[in-house]
Specification:
- The longest helix is centred in the last third of the chain and has 19 residues, at 376-394.
- The strands form three sheets. Strands 2-8-7-6-5-3-4 form a seven-stranded mixed sheet, sandwiched between helices.
- It has helices at residues 4-9, 15-30, 49-61, 64-68, 77-91, 105-117, 134-139, 159-165, 188-205, 266-280, 287-295, 304-319, 342-350, 376-394, and strands at 36-37, 100-103, 123-127, 144-148, 170-176, 210-214, 237-242, 255-259, 332-333, 354-355, 357-358, 368-371.
- The radius of gyration is 21 Å and the shape is globular.
- The protein has two domains: 4-47 and 302-394, Aspartate Aminotransferase, domain 1, CATH 3.90.1150; 49-295, Aspartate Aminotransferase, domain 2 (3-Layer(aba) Sandwich).
- It contains 14 helices and twelve strands.
- The protein is α/β, with parallel strands linked by helices.
Length: 396
């Protein structure tokens, strides 16, 4: 028999993907250069030349079986060592190879992390606004995602609501900083308060509450903004990382889980990841990509275009009277819509070939997301269209 829960998901496809497909279809009619598609968070800058050169060198010089054979279940040891050394060098946390588990991107990392620390019936607590795909990531494990309402003043954490939601049934808290969709970066003060509350509640409940930190945008932080390393503040942290944004290679699907060495069960949790991968099919990410990213471990693509685009859009939005928290990083901005119904607002924008994502699926009604990972030239052209839309429809 067909499994109904997956069949039912066919009628609840991602709003973001639906809008992206609509933009592509519209582009075939009028030319995609005339569709101002802010729907999909797909990195828009080239990979670093060093990554390309590394791939060529590996293909020309290394043993094909090393490059194309299965990696060990727990990842290639030399790769794990380089990831651990980089994290220790950059953030002062004494990771070793046994604390690192390579995965197929941040999604694969979260898939393993959740299964390590949350069983069927447990609650994983997320913070709105949040990435909508967290629901299938978590709910399909048998655990359940429960959300803390957003702090819309600055998109930090609504701690009053957080403490109320932190019940004994909560096995883990899932955070995302820098944040998709808001672009907010959690401050040191926020992380210190989060850690203090979770430590106190863990002691009160008699069981650890794990922190799963989703960090694919860690390197995209703008001038004047500090992005604290989350695991430094809380021992029981599982960091989920992807090289998709930092190296601009999302199609290669490579990331890792890093379990804080201060976590009492750190090495065992990594070994558990190897067993989890047997059941979910995320095992043994590409050997050649593991080796290549290890050679580029402290490199990034030229990420400066995202800050340029953000400033152009933020200045225009605020000039038009939109209420908007200025992003501290990522390539997203999350303004309030010019009417209460964000879906209606974004639907009207489509008449101007502006593809904006309504905020309901992010757990924060009344806003919309713009993914500005597009060419700056196109951003500049879109701003006049945005002005026209806001003036003609809303009198802005």
């Amino acid at each position: 028999m067909i499994v109904e829960k997956y069949q039912n998901m066919l009628n609840a496809k991602s709003v973001i993907r639906n809008l992206s497909e609509r933009a592509t279809a519209r582009g075939k009619e009028i030319g995609y250069e005339n569709v101002f598609d802010f729907s999909l968070g797909n990195p828009s800058v080239p990979v670093p030349q060093k990554f390309t050169d590394t791939m060529i060198r590996l293909l020309q010089n290394e043993d094909p079986m090393t490059l194309h054979g299965y990696s060990p279940t727990l990842g290639i040891p030399s790769v794990k060592e380089k990831i651990a050394a980089s994290l220790e060098r950059r953030f002062g946390v004494p990771y070793r190879a046994e604390h690192i588990f390579p995965t197929s991107g941040a999604a694969g990392a979260i898939a393993h992390a959740v299964r390590c620390v949350a069983k069927e019936g447990d609650i994983v607590l997320g913070i709105a606004p949040f990435f909508p795909e967290y629901h299938p990531y978590i709910d399909l494990t048998g655990a359940r995602l429960s959300l803390v309402p957003a702090d819309t003043e600055n998109f930090q954490i609504n701690f009053e609501a957080f403490e109320e939601a932190l019940t004994p049934q909560v096995a883990a808290v899932l955070i995302n900083t820098p944040n998709n969709p808001s672009g907010a970066v959690y401050s040191e003060e926020t992380l210190q308060k989060l850690a203090a509350i979770m430590t106190a509640k863990s002691e009160a409940f008699g069981h650890p509450i794990y922190l799963i930190s989703d960090e694919p945008y860690r390197e995209i932080v703008f001038a004047g903004v500090k992005a604290p390393y989350v695991a430094k503040y809380y021992a029981n942290t599982l960091t989920c990382y992807s090289f998709s944004k930092s190296l601009s290679l999302p199609g290669e699907r490579i990331g890792y889980v890093a379990v804080n060495p201060a976590c009492p069960d750190a090495a065992m949790l990594v070994n558990m990841c190897g067993q989890i991968s047997r059941g979910i099919g995320h095992n043994c990410p590409s050997s050649i990509i593991q080796l290549a990213v290890a050679e580029c471990i402290d490199e990034t693509a030229d990420l400066s275009v995202y800050e340029t685009n953000m400033n152009l859009i933020y200045d225009t939005l605020t000039d038009l009277g939109f209420s908007c928290v200025k992003p501290g990083g990522t390539f997203y901005i999350f303004p309030k819509a010019l009417e209460e119904d964000a879906t209606a607002f974004c639907t009207k924008a489509l008449d101007y070939d502006l593809v904006l994502v309504p905020s309901d699926s992010f757990g924060c009604p009344g806003h919309f997301r713009m993914a500005y990972c597009i060419d700056t030239e196109k951003v500049i052209r879109s701003l006049e269209v945005l002005r026209k839309f806001a003036k003609e429809v809303y009198g802005a």
